[in-house]
Design a protein that fits this description.
globular
Length: about 425
């Protein structure tokens, strides 16, 4: 049995995601697929179009055998921590032999060289010097790596290539690295808002729904049927989540906060707490809030993530503890018949618990207690993130879904 891991967001699952699975199967026809997927908020701090259970359901309907949630404390982080968290989780299952990802640039030798260079002392020193000038981490990283490797900076700025390098870096640091298969990303670029024949980026699909500019005849060509019918339903009911609904909560939190409390929050540094308090007194909506805070040092993605850290009270000390331990559990969101086989193998071999019922480890009553283990705190944050997500609808979604929702089982008895 060959088992392949994919680190994903599936926001939503589209033809590009399906193409990746199909291309991998051409070389590894007997592969079983495990997807480690972000929960209700994504790596860039954006709100997921549909919740994690629905996205997982779409994935197992279209080639993935088992979907596991990447804990929030890794999922909503910069690329290096997102990748490290995902690779660490796959590794701890002790059954995955290959990782597969899409990239705008697919030369594994070059990408591995870049990954190795990014861990060198020379790179770290050059990066530190550049960051002192006030530039963003992402911009500086591509510039420095290009200087050290003589590989075009344009290649190093491509979003999926950036993630791919981080996957390789995290993989190289494993005691026994996994095999790698890099698939050429097809046609639609990450931020491309146009549909390209049978392909479109997740950004384009989300944009069309949020701007009420959905051409469903075109949409039908770029997503599997299961995704199409779900998006059509969302469009008809206008049941879309909006991060803006959290603005009042955010402003209340900031206007009532003390400086020493703010400085403990992950992502707040270099006096940002003063600017946050000033902006909270002036901003009229969330977009205005971001606009007043945005800078080279603090781009929009950083601010979106920071908003969630503030609302979930995620401190620097907490993140340090989680980074020290890595993923502490594998929480199952959806699976098919092959996934059932994978679960049996994982329960025998994995070095972390496999969670199929959250209340076996944490319930809403225990979640409110002061003394939680690091394991329970990590899981509690995932559940609080769901509560936050459910406040982003009008009317609100029900409370406590993490404690009442079972993994989705997709029956595939007829599959070869």
């Amino acid at each position: 049995m060959s088992i392949t891991g994919i680190i994903s967001e599936y926001n939503p699952f589209h033809n590009g995601h399906k193409y990746l699975i199909q291309k991998h199967k051409e070389n590894f026809p007997d592969s079983y697929f495990i997807a480690v997927m972000s929960g209700n908020f994504t790596q860039r701090g954006e709100i997921a179009l549909v919740d994690k259970w629905q996205r997982a359901k779409l994935a197992v309907a279209n080639g993935i055998d088992l979907v596991i949630e990447l804990p929030f404390v890794f999922a909503v982080r910069s690329a290096q921590y997102f990748a490290k968290g995902g690779i660490d989780l796959l590794h701890k299952l002790h059954c995955v032999d290959t990782i597969c990802f899409g990239s705008e640039y697919t030369n594994e030798k070059d990408l591995t060289f870049i990954a190795q260079t990014s861990q060198s002392k020379k790179f770290q020193q050059m990066l530190k010097n550049k960051l002192a000038d006030g530039q963003s981490y992402a911009a500086v990283t591509s510039e420095v790596l290009s200087n050290l490797t003589n590989i075009s900076e344009d290649i190093l700025k491509a979003p999926n290539t950036i993630l791919g390098i981080e996957y390789l870096k995290a993989n190289l640091n494993l005691e026994k690295p996994l095999s790698v298969n890099i698939i050429q990303r097809m046609k639609a670029e990450h931020n491309d808002l146009n549909y390209q024949e049978n392909f479109a980026s997740g950004t384009a699909i989300r944009h069309s729904l949020y701007t009420n500019n959905s051409n469903f005849s075109k949409l039908k060509q770029v997503v599997p049927s299961e995704t199409y019918f779900l998006l059509q339903k969302i469009h008809q009911t206008q049941d879309l989540p909006h991060l803006d609904y959290l603005f009042t909560n955010l402003i209340s939190k900031l206007r009532l906060a003390k400086l020493d409390e703010l400085t403990k929050i992950y992502g707040i540094r270099e006096g940002l707490e003063y600017k946050l308090l000033k902006t909270a007194n002036e901003a009229i909506n969330l977009q205005d809030f971001f606009q007043k805070l945005k800078s080279k040092r603090y781009p929009l993605t950083n601010l979106q993530r920071l908003t969630l850290y503030l609302l979930l009270n995620i401190t620097k000390d907490l993140i340090q503890r989680f980074d020290d331990t890595g993923a502490l559990y594998a929480r199952v969101l959806a699976f098919n018949d092959k996934g059932t086989e994978l679960l049996k193998q994982m329960k025998k071999n994995a070095s972390i618990p496999i969670i199929t019922k959250t209340t076996s480890y944490l319930d809403s009553k225990k979640r409110c207690q002061q003394k939680l283990t690091t394991f329970e705190e990590m899981l509690a944050i995932d559940t609080y993130a769901t509560e936050l997500y459910n406040l982003c609808f009008n009317p609100f979604k029900p409370y406590g879904k993490d404690f009442t929702t079972s993994p989705y089982y997709f029956k595939t008895n007829n599959e070869n």
